[in-house]
Design a protein that fits this description.
The protein contains eleven helices and ten strands. The strands form two sheets. A six-stranded parallel beta sheet has the order 7-6-5-8-9-10. It has a four-stranded antiparallel beta sheet with strand order 2-3-1-4. The longest helix has 25 residues.
């Protein structure tokens, strides 16, 4: 059983969805990892993609090592980040639901890569004392607003979902959720007793809020001045978007406390030197594991 992986260089969410659909329609089961930082695909065969630009390709042991490194947080902006392991697990679960999912060997291969990543995390301690970006963002917002003041989360992906759940468990504020997928936003909001809707309702959903956390994969801003007419002042905005979800005019407003991704990452990068040393240990564990996997085939 061979393993082939590729990185697809697409930023536009709509084009990403089209590429993912083409991959699924190819009839070849694949693990598709779609996050704000990457779109990568792993399968037993190369999947032909005519329009998207594949910037990198990997095969066999190198592809196996790549997948394990991603799950271990070695390819993330924050070494050892916690969200990525959950994102890879979600991608694996989606692979298991593929209509043509009948490849026991490929399934076992993905399980082995995830198991290796977990072992590398555990034995290296790369994520020791590391707080997730979503938790830091939510805590930052909670610390800056009045208890019980409404807050909003823009986005419904993996990081946004973690933010909503953190706010629901540790915050005292009503939570509103909005995203380009209204059903997903509503479902996520209901988990914490809030309410949600689509981006078309953004202005209405932000009425009266004291804080906003943005976490979308949009290639352009989604939060503009006209959306904030009914929001409280001062207003705190924590923006995890890459590029920023908040328009530069909003970022510069005097009555807006804007906190960008770099500030949140800086908090997560505490003890960077120690984490880099642990990352080297994790990388060796994964490299040795990938070579062992290759020899056992």
């Amino acid at each position: 059983m061979q393993l082939v992986g590729c990185q697809i260089d697409i930023d536009c969410p709509e084009q990403r969805l089209e590429a993912i659909q083409r991959i699924r329609e190819s009839g070849r089961p694949a693990l598709i990892l779609n996050t704000c930082q990457r779109l990568e695909c792993f399968s037993s065969q190369a999947i032909p993609l005519s329009e998207p630009a594949t910037t990198q390709r990997w095969q066999d042991a190198v592809a196996f090592e790549r997948l394990a490194r991603i799950a271990a947080g070695l390819e993330s902006r924050i070494l050892g980040e916690l969200e990525i392991l959950g994102q890879v697990r979600s991608a694996y679960k989606a692979f298991r639901t593929h209509p043509q999912h009948d490849s026991t060997d490929l399934d076992r291969l993905f399980q082995e890569a995830l198991s290796l990543a977990r072992r590398a995390r555990r034995e290296s301690g790369i994520d020791r004392n590391l707080t997730s970006l979503s938790a830091i963002a939510a805590r930052t917002l909670i610390d800056r607003i009045t208890d019980s003041a409404p807050v909003a989360v823009v986005g419904s992906g993996s990081i946004a979902s973690s933010v909503v759940r953190y706010l629901g468990k540790r915050g005292k504020s009503p939570v509103r959720v909005t995203s380009r997928c209204p059903d997903r936003a509503m479902s996520l909001a209901l988990e914490v007793g809030g309410f949600g809707g689509g981006l078309a309702e953004l202005k209405h959903l932000l009425d009266g809020v004291a804080g906003i956390i943005c976490a979308t994969a949009a290639p352009h801003p989604v939060l503009y001045p006209e959306h904030l007419h009914g929001a409280r002042r001062p207003l705190t905005i924590v923006d995890l978007g890459v590029p920023p979800d908040t328009h530069e005019v909003v970022q510069a407003m005097n009555d807006v406390d804007y906190i960008g991704l770099e500030a949140i990452e800086a908090k997560a990068q505490m003890n960077t030197l120690a984490r880099q040393e642990r990352a080297e240990v994790a990388a060796r564990i994964i490299r040795d594991g990938a070579l062992a996997w290759s020899r056992s085939r």
